[in-house]
Design brief:
With 163 residues, the protein is an alpha+beta fold. The protein has helices at 2-25, 37-45, 106-120, 147-157; strands spanning 51-57, 75-81, 97-102, 129-134, 137-142, 160-161. The longest helix is centred in the first third of the chain and has 24 residues, at 2-25.
Length: 163
């Protein structure tokens, strides 16, 4: 009887060691890498039929001169919408259809979208646009598009519209 009890205790002890050993060998899945603006715009292009191309913004064609600068975005891309006038290499910007901007933090993206909304809310010569924030990414949709068209961009992008 004593032998059975000792054997049972040994089996239970080994079973406990085996379980913790298996758990310690399991690797945590790393979080997904954030998308660049070009990647996010390309995903959106597949869902918005009027987008004919995506142009990556660089320091050489950035209409805002903000890419890679202090207090600027990390990456940006323009989506050219076929329903708007043709854009060329000297004039890529939100007026081409929409722009995706990726910021260093969620707070930076939110601040950017609120700033744009505040500047444009008075109307006037600066025009208008719809702005959406999802995490560290801002989607800026040209006010030259119809509201129904802007809605297609916004609903496929997700996030929250700044108002």
């Amino acid at each position: 009887m004593k032998r059975i009890i000792i054997t049972a205790i040994a089996v239970l002890a080994l079973a406990g060691c085996g379980t913790s050993n298996v758990a310690s060998k399991a690797k945590a899945t790393p979080p997904p890498k954030p998308l660049t603006a070009t990647q996010a715009a390309t995903v959106l292009q597949a869902k918005v039929p009027d987008v004919t191309k995506v142009v990556t913004i660089t320091e050489n064609n950035d209409p805002n001169n903000m890419i890679g600068r202090p207090n600027g975005y990390v990456s940006a891309a323009v989506m050219v919408d076929k329903t708007l006038p043709v854009c060329d290499s000297t004039g890529f910007g939100v007026d081409c259809g929409a722009t995706v901007e990726v910021w260093p933090t969620v707070a930076d993206a939110t601040t950017r979208a609120k700033y744009i909304h505040a500047v444009l809310s008075g109307g006037g010569p600066l025009g208008s646009e719809w702005d959406f924030v999802k995490g560290d990414t801002v989607l800026r949709v040209s006010g030259n598009l119809k509201p129904s068209q802007a809605g297609i961009y916004g609903s496929n992008f997700g996030g929250k519209q700044v108002q």
